[in-house]
Design goal:
The protein has 3 helices and 2 strands, in the order H-E-E-H-H. With 104 residues, it is mainly alpha-helical. It has a domain of 72 residues.
Amino acid sequence: MEAAATPTDTSPIGAVVSADTPPIGLQTIATAYSDYTMKSLEEARCFVEKLSGVRSLDKALEIQSEFARQAYETYAADSRKIRELYNDLVMKAFTPSKPPPAAR
């Protein structure tokens, strides 16, 4: 158990990276944005398909309300994920790999 908790690698900016967490970088954040964009586009495509087959106003409003709810939930979840990735990146960037020297 201690082996998994010990640092295994030092990143170029001096932060210690553990073996069980993937390195957080700009590529990881860009991938998260890309995933969110793909989910949003897929949800919009499904919404348009559903809406095109509707024959009544009340059903159209129901579909639109469901789409708005789903879009908000997707936005909230993915923005939380992206915010956490940025937070991890900043914390790793500013975590020193060695303690500062003692003052005399």
